Amino acid sequence: MRRGNSQPGQLTLFEDQAAPPPDPERDAGAPTPEGLAADAGGADGADGADGADLGPAEPARDHAGAARRRAGALHARGARGPAAPARPRVPPSPHVALDEAIPDYITYLTSLGRSQHTIKSFELDLRLLRGQLGNRPVGAVDTGQLRQFIAWVRVTRGNTPNSLRRKVATLKNFFGYLRDEGYIAASPADLVPYPEAQAALPEFLEEDAALRLVEAAESNPFWHALLALMIDTGLKRDEALALRVADLRLDENPAGSYLVVRETDAAKRLRTRRVPVSERLRDALRAYYKATRHPQTGESRVFDVSVRGINFIVEVCGARAGIETSKPRLTPQVLRETFAVAQMRARAQEERRCQLRGWNGEQMQLLTLRHDAEVLELLGLKEDPDTARKYRQLVKE
What we know:
The chain is mainly alpha-helical. It contains 15 helices and 3 strands.
């Protein structure tokens, strides 16, 4: 996301660029990109929205800019037709209480044409703040109290880092508005830091759950081989669809069995690589070939099934195995993540053994880097420390 320097009072939570000057043709017609972006926010119950990395820029001091914005908002509101009678505005003063300042701010947001969804999210956050601080004058609110409020919603209400970032952004916008309108001389929210955004870790199956899943398909050789393939090789769904008979080598010696992922019309964005075939997968593929009299020609698809077919097989077998995830149904991506975690876990165990044997820091670092590269190579991913770190974090938990 590209960031720009915001103008004072601007809703930088959803908008990264300064608001453009009023344009009669634009204001009377289609919505602006800034307005569409502002309406993209959401609320997570009473605590506001869990959003993406929303790090708005700090508003600069510019009282003339605030007046221009208010005039532009009024102009845009007039272009949409007559509005309801405005609530009398409280004269700006540090002695104005939160119960008066918050409605003024909500009225201001409404005058900007923000969606009811967005306005409600801001109002919920500010009412929560008022509930903690009481109806004190806006000039009596300091940075320490705002920090304590953020700590309270994090610990007591269990807000996620992304939800906390939303609340910090609400505070910065609200107190920035009060500063720009002359209620207070400086914003106490300026020094409230944003919590670091937390990327969600992928879901995976523990070893016993993965075993139950494969066993749930044993009555159908096709399904059994397909699930064993996805769990034991980490192939993406499109890679499984693109697999040809010629891409598989099933050797009597399990260590000599492997498959090759290659670029095809069905999977042009996939990285060519060689992946070992486990003994379980080798036996499942052989049983599948025998039971279905699968054509052994080199370019025949190993699994003649559609994308929806794979999704259905994974979902049904997941239900049979009693597997529950955060989503309503099991997905092929969870099987890929299961393979990745299993591979990283095996390498982490080797690292612990080497550490016990007395390897020094440099040796351990080189081994860790090599293991990270091996796992990413098996997945067909480019070397990326963040991706490798994600799987290592899952192994530690």
